[in-house]
Amino acid sequence: MIEDLDRCLHEEGVDAIVVEGNGFEKPDVYWMTGFRSTDSVIALHPVDEETVVAAGYHTVTRVQRESFVKRTFDLTEVYDRLRAEKKRVLENQDLLYEPFLQAHFSGKVLGVPDHLPVSSVLAIRGLGYDVRVVPYLLKDARARKEPREVKAIQKAADATMYAVGRAVELIKDCDIGPNHQLVHQGRALTVGDIKVVLDTALIEKRAEAAEDSIVAVGKKAFDWHYLGATKDVIKEGEPLIIDVFPRLKEERYIADVTRTVVKGTVSKRVREMFDAVKEAGDASVDALTGGARVDDVNKECYDVLSSHGFDSKFLNPKAEEGMTHGLGHGIGLEVHENPSMYEGEKRFQEGHVMAIEPGVYLRSVGGVRIENDYLVTKGRAKRLTQGLEDVIFV
Questions:
Q1: Cα–Cα distance measured from residue 71 to residue 226, given in angstroms and rounded to the nearest whole number
Q2: What is the spatial distance between Cα 338 and Cα 31, in angstroms, rounded to a whole number?
Q3: How many angstroms from the chain centroid is the CA of residue 209?
Q4: Which domains does the chain have, with CATH numbers?
Q5: Which residue among 48, 175, 254, 294 is least enclosed by CB atoms within 10 Å?
Q6: CA-CA distances (angstroms) from residue 205 to 41, 92, 130, 209, 238?
Q7: Cis omega before residue 339 (within 30°)?
Q8: CA 158 from centre of chain
Q9: How far from 362 is each of 197, 218, 310, 312, CA to CA, in Å?
Q10: Which pLDDT value is given to residue 3?
Q11: Is 1 a residue whose pLDDT tops 90?
């Protein structure tokens, strides 16, 4: 939440935070300004004051019209001067920052995120300011979501569930052909076919794959971040992991959903994996409340898996099979945000939005993963990803 930004500034002992870039490439810029543009801006938030944005030419007018920032600083004259003197902007960042900071920063210590360009950090320091890199400040400030952010994540979740549902329908419509291959319209169904369906469905909902979707079949899914090769063929009885984490094109927020689908005969071992993962996820969510310790939620998951005979890195750091990744992560403008499930002593707060993704991976089988998104509340977490069963056998 924006209100958390001032709290984080006080805790870090810095008097302001400055970011630069455009809202498409820099989530921090979009979060601080609400300005959706390919035009770069500089955004400064002095502690306990309103954010102010510096930009030149028509971009200033666009910020005033399209963002939620009320204060702007016009750099047009500076850009005109650089152009007249045939100077490059990136080599003269001090000429942009000097008038802007003189007008709007009266503190002593200026915080910057770790992604602020080195040229800008050097330019600001060259102007005599005490610059401190605060890599986690904005990550912590963004962790709790405002109602408008939750609404956007819910919209992204609905789009994601629609897309995954379309992929499931495609698989369901397939016949089983030679060598146990799934056959659709006379040819073998491939990972590429499924990704086309996913991408097309997301476009219908004004969303797009944030990077790429994971469509991993059979034993290859043992590597839980294997994206899936376009020509990989889908086969009967093999678990197919579909992990989709799209971004809304307008609101920019992300959801993250995983379903594991099996077409045809389901082996006893695969059923055991599904049962364990489903129960572990349910137990985790039962513990996911405001004030709960992160590792208490983790333990619920891994204890259930252990009771089903599956290992985990959490209980056994040397584990090579079982659940070999974390239980989940925060989501928002990026697919991985705070809070982190690896910071076990921290506590969940109302307003956190979490992707919870228990999974089990065996070399001889592949993997089974189920992932849903939740809003942390005072009571039981609210599930945002509705409309598809967690266990999908077709």
A1: 45
A2: 14
A3: 11
A4: 2-141 (3.40.350.10), 147-393 (3.90.230.10)
A5: 48
A6: 29, 42, 46, 12, 30
A7: yes
A8: 16
A9: 28, 10, 9, 12
A10: 85
A11: no
